[in-house]
What we know:
Shape: globular
CATH topology of the largest domain: Rossmann fold
Mean pLDDT: 91
Oligomer: single chain
CATH class of the largest domain: Alpha Beta
Strand content: 25-35%
Structural class: alpha/beta
Amino acid sequence: MPAGEAEPFPRAVLDVLEAAGGRPVFEHGSRVVTGAEMLDLVARIAAGLRAEGLGPGDGVALLLGVNPEAFATILAAHAVGARVLGVRPGLPDDQVRHLLGLDVAAVITDSDSTIARRDVRALTVDSLRKARADGRPRCAGRGADVARLIHTSGSTGAPKACAQTYAAMTVAWAARPDAWPPAIRELASRLDRFLVFGSLSSQVMFEYAVVAITAGGAAVIADRPGFPEAITLHRASASVITVARLAKLVAAQRRAPADLSSLRALMVSGSPLTADRHREALEVLGPVVFHGYGQSETGMIAMATPADPPGTVGTPPAVSHVEVRDVDGRPVSPGVDGELFVRTPEQADAYWADPARSAEVFADGWVRTRDLGHFDADGRLRLTGRIRDVVIVNANLHYAGPIEQVIAEHPDIAEAYVVAAPDEDTGEAVHAFVVPSGGRTPDLAALRALVTARLGAACAPVAVTVIAEPPLAPSGKPDKRLLSRTLT
């Protein structure tokens, strides 16, 4: 690195840990880890990686649980300039083997384990942390190098590896309070005890843990992440939650309210939240709901605070650019639906080793989201569906998103998922999978009448299947492809 040039990511995060000193930054059961202890752990693991000959441009896969060592290992791998690939726990063996085939030089695990590929070097956190720290951790990432591969959810197709460079991660806002958008600044003030679970390889979980520590709070690890139990057990002030889990939490609070007096923020992510469900969550849980919108390709695009109108995802920050375009690629007026094209400072550049699909999504500095939405008169963003999530009835294309939103407005429905079902007369027809609300059985005729009145008869479901909950992809998002397979 040239003399005088600022060090890249994760320098800002390491500076936060250094400033924290003796303040707790992680809590795991009875164990408390201070900023100074975490920084020392990062330095030792980074020294261990360098001793193994790993450095800028080398692919490193992480198969780690949720613990302070996992957080330190992520930072250490970035400090040496590696290309970091987080592997979510619980993936099938064939998916793990596929991920380890993405030009990986080494895989790091919590303890000794059998790795699915013999040509990949296996290391453990315990062995790496025994290295002698060689002073303050150095950050050796090269700006144009890929810093991490973030896999998309795969909820509407095969997961893709988004390649984010060190230059992009360095300008990201998570560890830089002066760069926090207004919604993040408000959220950060509520992250005293941020509940962490699932996987620290999750883009959302890792980055909000960084925000919490930067804001003076701590990441609190929940080994059992059920809601509301984890919130009450750990006296958590904040957590990330999916739409499905939020619906369950709201229903549970209506039946038998738990003590959620410590709770100040729930970041809803993964899928859009309908206006009615958003409003109900605010009524039952109080002004704690932050509705985030982002993609693996872009990072955060916008976030609604509890003060924003239900059903919106807030106003994009000044550093992010969002255009709503028609089918010919021309910007449309506020209030008119179109496809969202986005530019953010921290966005990915491409899909790893996939030039064909990269060309479909990344062009001229913009990311094609394939999401549908519009700006309202006040400049707030509203999401309405997915471009390729469609049902083709009598050769006419109908987006599933608006149909799902209308069905979910019915008082007997908590969640709705629309898929295309084969139909002898129309080619395809709408089939709705619904999670009932309050144990009531939804009436098909009533749902058909509601959808017909709002969207037309072609969008009305020809059948409704009641489910307890949707199947989930490895990302935690509802997997509609699995629902579709039940119809064949």
